[in-house]
Structures are given as structure tokens and as C-alpha cells.
Amino acid sequence: xxxxxxxxxxxxxxxxxxxxxxxxxxxxxxxxxxxxxxxxxxxxxxxxxxxxxxxxxxxxxxxxxxxxxxxxxxxxxxxxxxxxxxxxxxxxxxxxxxxxxxxxxxxxxxxxxxxxxxxxxxxxxxxxxxxxxxxxxxxxxxxx
Length: 144
Prior knowledge:
By secondary structure, the chain is an alpha/beta fold. Helices cover 33% and strands 18% of the residues. Strands 5-2-1-6 form a four-stranded parallel β-sheet, with helices on one face. A two-stranded antiparallel sheet has the order 3-4.
């Protein structure tokens, strides 16, 4: 019995769009659901070597919650690639300035670390308010 995988064109023809409302939701739960959809594990046509996932729109990024003491103790780190260039930003400051980056980094950490990662994260759209410009794609809403 042979297994037939769909081509990239066939997969893009059946792409869907999903909306996740992040208002009063926990960051990790929203990121997990978004990463699962972006990877494509929710589909029977899943293939680990193809971008078989769908598009995800996350709304109300500024109303997301962090549990426990994460708002005070969690640090976001990146390096500028210069000597002594380690930069740290506390979660409270990141939440105040750009919470969409918090969601994007949480989802990015859950995606596979391979060549498909950049193409998967391009399908993620994060917005502050409750509106988005993708109504023409007729996205379906996901309840968490």
C-alpha cells in the first residue's frame, strides 16, 4: 500500500484561515493552539516535510494573560551579535510596549526548528484590537 502526499499546490488550494480571540486567555494555551494549526497537525494531510498548516489570526494581543509570577520573573533575551550585546527585557515591559511580540515568540518557539519554520510563521497574523483586514478570506473562529 503506497502513501500519496499532496503537493504544495494542492495543499495551498485547501488552505483555511482561523481566528483566535486572545482576550483573557493564557499566553501558552493560545500559542499552543496556533502552533498546532500552523504546523498542520490538525489535518489528515499532515506531512512533516511540507508546509501543510493553515493561516492563523490572533486578535486582542494586548489583553492576553500570563499566569503565576511570569509577569515579574520572565525575561526575553536576544543578542545583538556584538561583544557584550546580550539584551534582556522583562515580561512586564514587553507586555506594556509590544505584546504581539510576546505571542509571536511563544509560537515561534513551538514551531519545528527547520527550513520550513520561516514559511510557517509568515502565516501567523497578530493584531492588537478586535478587528483584522482579512475578512475576505472568511476565517472561522476557534474557541479555546
